[in-house]
Specification:
This protein has helices spanning 3-28, 124-136, 146-163, 172-183, 195-203, 261-267; strands at 54-55, 72-76, 83-85, 88-90, 94-98, 100-102, 187-191, 208-212, 230-238, 243-247, 257-260, 282-286. The strands form 3 sheets. Strands 1, 6, 7, 8, 9, 10, 11 and 12 form an 8-stranded mixed beta sheet that branches. A two-stranded antiparallel ribbon has the order 2-5. Strands 3-4 form a two-stranded antiparallel ribbon. Helix content is 29%, strand content 19%. The chain has 2 domains: 1-32; 54-69 and 100-286, Alpha-Beta Complex (Cathepsin B, Chain A). The protein has 290 residues and is of the alpha+beta class. The protein is built from 6 helices and 12 strands.
Length: 290
């Protein structure tokens, strides 16, 4: 083979090598990014029968709830959510919050057949969870049938005794665990909530369960001094009167009962083996989109 032929072949091979490198570089250095949907959602996902995550203050709910009383204020989201869009942060997302709201949470007392002996005397947590669960199941009646409620509450208690070994005085975390295991609803426990946190959750269409030192509620319909420890469901609020609207299972008059907001916040206290007035401030949230 002549020297010229060798040079020509060498140049051809070199040219092909350069073209290969260019093609490879173009393929792996394209500026087009993968779509965001191809990545795992960064929000915490809650799945049935998994460990819950306990949160501090967040107040990030943004959905607008259906309400027969719908008067709207526009306020700055306390969480000051920031949306990262090509390194441009958009802060102070505005959130619409009704000035009045009352979710259609069905009611029963914890003693549906007016028997306040055991186990009903200690069944406020089960009944609060039950009312909230029926709300998410779209139960259509405002008042739960007494026979149905009695049967269902006893069934919940039997489940607790089998699974946990007890049913009395369940903490926020234990009650949330019950809701997950019995009703298959995802939950989270919020510590040191604010009034705005509770309003935001309600405006998102989700009632809030609150453990309290029952005697600090000063409900005139409680017998004696009232229960040492008590759990109820916040279903709404009224800014004009500064009241939370609740379903309080501790009295047959507990449907749509109103407590001043500061009374609920001061009475709020988790079970701590005997002194809930000094217990941690917690609420139970059911993480279902409405």
């Amino acid at each position: 083979m002549s020297g010229k032929a060798v040079i020509v072949i060498t140049l051809v091979v070199f040219a092909l090598f350069v073209l290969f490198l260019y093609s490879f570089s173009s393929k792996y250095n394209d500026d087009e990014s993968l779509p965001y949907s191809s990545f795992e959602n960064n929000n915490q996902e809650f799945k049935q029968n998994t460990d819950r995550v306990e949160y501090g203050n967040n107040g990030n709910g943004q959905n607008f709830a259906n309400s027969s009383e719908l008067e709207v204020d526009v306020v700055n989201n306390a969480a000051n959510d920031k949306i990262d869009n090509n390194d441009a942060n958009i802060a102070n997302v505005e959130l619409q919050i009704p000035t009045k709201l009352n979710l259609a949470v069905p009611f029963t007392s914890q003693a549906p057949l007016a028997d306040w002996g055991e186990p009903y005397q200690e069944a406020c947590e089960e009944t609060a969870a039950y009312m909230a669960a029926l709300y998410f199941a779209d139960y259509s009646e405002a008042m739960i049938d007494a026979q149905k409620a009695d049967k269902d509450i006893k069934s919940i208690i039997a489940f607790e005794e089998k699974k946990f070994g007890f049913y009395e005085d369940t903490t926020a975390e234990q009650t949330a665990d019950l809701i997950e295991k019995y009703f298959n609803l995802p939950t989270r426990v919020l510590t040191n909530p604010t009034i705005d946190d509770i309003k935001t959750e309600l405006a998102s269409g989700r009632p809030v369960l609150v453990p309290t030192a029952g005697r600090l509620l000063n409900n005139p319909y409680f017998s004696g001094d009232g229960p040492l420890y008590h759990m109820l469901v916040i279903r709404g609020y009224d800014n004009d009167t500064y009241e939370f609207i609740v379903n309080d299972p501790g009295t047959k008059r507990g449907a749509n009962y109103r407590y001043k907001m500061n009374v609920i916040m001061e009475a709020m206290g988790d079970w701590n083996d005997g002194d809930p007035a000094q217990g941690a401030k917690k609420i139970i949230l059911i993480n279902v989109e409405r």
